[in-house]
């Protein structure tokens, strides 16, 4: 069974804490943007920073999950052509990207 990277309800407490800390660090690094925004716009700036942090996190988790699935498919004998087709790229592109 494949678990979804979008299933936030089932994230472990450690992963939730890591995501929260990462988002806070990102928000802290963007203080200049926040401070330069009008006071009434600051809450939306914080939400933008949080949403962007979440987007980056989800993309990185999806990429990690794809790599694991490709490795598993290869271990089970699936050809690069079929893997590439499943990913919407050529088999050669899949091999070049995921063959480590």
Describe this structure in words.
The structure is a single chain. With 100 residues, the chain is mostly helical. The protein has one domain. The chain is built from five helices and no strands. Helix 1 crosses helix 3 and helix 4 packs across helix 5.
Question: Quick summary of this structure?
Answer:
With 100 residues, this protein is mainly alpha-helical. It contains 5 helices and no strands.
Q: How many strands, what sense, and barrel or not for the largest sheet? A: none
Q: From N to C, what is the helix and strand string?
A: HHHHH
DSSP E strands, number: 0
Helix content: over 70%
Mean pLDDT: 82
Number of H/I helices: 5
Q: Using only CA atoms, what is the Rg?
A: 19 Å
Structural class designation: mainly alpha
Q: What would the principal axes of the Cα set say about the shape?
A: elongated
Low-confidence stretches: 1-5
Strand content: under 5%
- Number of structurally distinct domains: 1
N→C terminal distance: 24 Å
Keywords:
disordered N terminus; mainly alpha; 100 residues
Please outline the helices and strands:
Layout: H1 13-29, H2 31-36, H3 42-75, H4 80-87, H5 91-98
